[in-house]
From TrEMBL:
It comes from Lolium multiflorum (Italian ryegrass). Belongs to the aldehyde dehydrogenase family. Pfam families: Aldedh. Residues 1-17 form the signal peptide. This is Aldehyde dehydrogenase domain-containing protein.
């Protein structure tokens, strides 16, 4: 016992020191980012802050990306639609910077993350306001979808990123016991990303953080519907890179339309795309020309399943939040609601009560629960989906109300809408709506709801609610999708250690988590001698060239020695193998004696 006491004291002292070190805050410098030209009060005084009427359709794709606030239609400015040659120049600059950054230490990369995190925490209102102005979402939605998710990703990378990028040792197998096997992770080069408009801050930071932390450069094409905010967020990235002494041109934000995106795909070492299945197929076709790896995060039609034994008041609130995720900009939101027949009327009535209390309006001009629809003509598409359902027998159980919109603002807003008596013949249950519509369908059994939930060309995520957690897990395990939340919604994305992505028309590949981080890397398998230089690889004499007459018999015994079913089989083969080797060594001696 006396022997153990000193060890216990040392262990306790070590643990105490570790705890005390955690209490010492790291030194993180502050940085300044010029936001004088994007503040609301400044823009209101500009002569060019006029009401903008955007052109519709393909005619809008000119040499400029024009930006406006969807909630007010105020003009924000424009950015160039880059040509293919200009895109290639951006990628070339990034590639040159990446060769320097690839040699950076994890300490330097972590400091970059800490500086970003500090700025985000200190400027949440600015970041959310810019997101709100460019996409029409409320400040609360911006905080949930932009700030929290990005902070969670940064802290996960700080805590675990280096561990998952260090060499990982693997089992070497029976035939290579004298070897050491490992996987090494090297930067790919320039990671390209084409991202959607619905989360302009997080969609820029998400691929950038993984790329830069793993030693890559990043060139990100922001959506033509959210270029104004994306270009401001780029200033934050630039300032943080400058603060840690990173090479110039390591990260680029580019603007433009389809031609710009196609040029990016042709120029980078990997492409990450967040958008529609149709464009995703074009991205794959273009990427096949250079055979670069592709990650596609495409559409979703997530099922939200409510069993009869749930805590109904809480689930109803979660359901409404899931449907109206990001002011009706429904990426990662629930789009199909299946409720057990025993609680269907009560569930619908409670949802309708909440929906009717929701007010829709310009998010920065008053206290509104939901903001504007970001894309021109999208509200018309949403109404067409509702009309199709009504024509086939559905009913509107309730809708939200508009606030003080003004006569010219109707097209940018769509009231949250509850549909009942829906079925799978209706487009609203099959096509991605990307809007604040809650189609609620009843089911009678677990088997039925599993079949209904799987009856979709999409397979991104699902949420299953039941008072019996094992029952919910069993249902979720039978749904063909990439992510699942049990008695919650979208919680899997907030666990940034988990991969995110889908199947079928929802795409393939994963970002976030270990899988997403390593997807930014060249994964290299390495085998080396375990006891070098004492034990080296030697070709056995029977199979050396020229191969001896009993070479195949030797090889058979070797296979049986290594992989025999039982220990006795392997020992028996080993004895015979050693006997063969000894006889072969003795044969030349007998010939010499004659």
């Amino acid at each position: 016992m006396a022997f153990w006491w000193p060890l216990l004291v040392l262990a306790a002292a070590y643990a105490l020191c570790r705890v005390l070190l955690l209490l010492i805050p790291p030194t993180v410098p502050s940085m300044e980012v010029d936001a004088s030209d994007v503040l609301e009060e400044v823009n209101q005084n500009k002569e060019d802050s006029f009401i903008y009427i955007p052109r519709k359709g393909k005619a809008a794709q000119t040499d400029k990306v024009r930006c406006y606030e969807p909630a007010t239609m105020k003009y924000l400015g424009y950015f160039p639609a880059l040509t293919p040659d200009e895109v290639r120049e951006h990628v070339a600059q990034a590639s040159k910077a990446q060769k320097i950054w690839s040699k950076s230490s994890f300490k330097q990369r972590r400091q970059f993350l800490r500086i970003l995190l500090k700025y985000i925490l200190e400027h949440q209102d600015l970041i959310c306001e810019i997101s709100s102005r460019d996409t029409g979402k409320t400040m609360v939605d911006a905080s949930l979808g932009e700030i929290m998710t990005t902070c969670e990703k940064i802290t996960w990378l700080l805590d675990e990123g280096e561990k998952w990028l260090k060499p990982e040792y693997r089992a070497c197998g029976r035939s290579m016991l004298h070897k050491r096997a490992k996987v090494e992770f090297y930067p790919l080069g320039v990671i390209g990303a084409i991202v959607s408009w619905n989360y302009p801050f997080h969609n820029v930071f998400n691929p950038m953080l993984a790329a830069v932390f793993s030693g890559n450069a990043a060139v990100i094409k922001v959506s033509e519907h959210a270029s104004w905010s994306g270009c401001f967020y780029y200033r934050i990235i630039q300032a943080a890179l400058l603060a840690v002494g990173a090479p110039d041109n390591l990260v680029h934000i580019i603007t433009g339309f389809g031609e710009t995106g196609q040029a990016l795909v042709s120029s980078v070492d990997k492409i990450i795309f967040v958008g529609s299945p149709g464009v995703g197929r074009m991205i794959m076709q273009k990427a096949s020309e250079t055979l670069i790896p592709v990650t596609l995060e495409l559409g979703g039609k997530d099922a939200f399943i409510v069993c009869e034994d749930v805590d109904l008041p809480n689930v109803v609130q979660v359901a409404v939040r899931a449907a109206l995720q990001s002011s009706g900009q429904n990426c990662a939101g629930a789009e199909r609601f299946y409720v057990h027949k025993d609680i269907y009327p009560t569930f619908v009535s409670r949802v309708v009560k909440i929906i009717k209390s929701i007010s829709v309006g310009p998010p920065l001009s008053g206290r509104y629960d939901m903001g504007a629809i970001c894309m021109i003509e999208h509200s018309e598409r949403l109404q067409n989906l509702v009309n199709d359902a009504l024509d086939k027998g559905a009913e509107i159980a309730g809708r939200g109300s508009f606030g003080n919109l003004g006569e010219d603002a109707v097209d940018q807003f769509f009231p949250p809408t509850v549909l009942v008596n829906v079925d799978h013949t209706m487009k609203i249950m099959q096509e991605e709506a990307f809007g604040p519509i809650l189609p609620i369908m009843k089911f009678s059994s677990d088997e039925e709801v599993i079949q209904l939930a799987n009856d979709s060309k999409y397979g991104l995520g699902c949420a299953v609610f039941s008072g019996d957690q094992k029952r919910a897990i069993k249902i979720a395990s039978q749904l063909h999708c990439g992510v699942a939340a049990i008695n919650d919604f979208a919680s899997s994305y907030m666990c940034q250690s988990l991969p995110f992505g889908g199947v079928k028309d929802s795409g393939f590949g994963r970002f976030a988590g270990v899988e997403g981080l390593r997807a930014c890397c060249l994964v290299k398998a390495v085998v080396e001698d375990r006891w070098w230089p004492y034990v080296k690889t030697m070709i056995p004499k029977p199979i050396q060239y020229p191969v001896s007459e009993n070479g195949f018999a030797f090889q058979q015994l070797l296979v049986e020695t290594l992989y025999g079913i039982s220990v006795w089989d392997r020992l028996r083969s080993l004895v015979n193998l050693l006997k063969m080797i000894s006889e072969q060594k003795a044969t030349p001696t007998r010939k010499k004696s004659r």
